[in-house]
Amino acid sequence: MSCFATGQASNLSITERANGDGAFFKIKVSPDGEQALVDAFALISETDVNRAFRGHWQTETADGITVKLNTHQGVLLFRYDTPASLTARAAAEKEKVIRQIFNQEERTD
Hints:
The chain starts with a strand and ends in an 8-residue tail after the last helix. It is an alpha+beta fold. It has 2 helices and 6 strands; from the N terminus they run E-E-E-H-E-E-E-H. Helix 1 runs antiparallel to helix 2. 27% of the residues lie in helices and 36% in strands.
């Protein structure tokens, strides 16, 4: 089974996809949300990031989640390609952190 959802507000859009093999979550923000994007990347990637950072950055967390930041495009995304339940739980927590930072309601599925 596969699930795909998108949502958009005036200053951001969220795209997410999930199936039995993994998941993908992407948030795209307007330029005024760039600082929050960098802050969210630092939190979910568990990486020390200079708040003035601008550019591309990709890392993988200890639980196998790939996290990518592109401030030029205003995009933060993470994905994992394994059905492991611990990875899925870690990804759900990362999604929750991002939604809190950007004041977006959580999914209700």
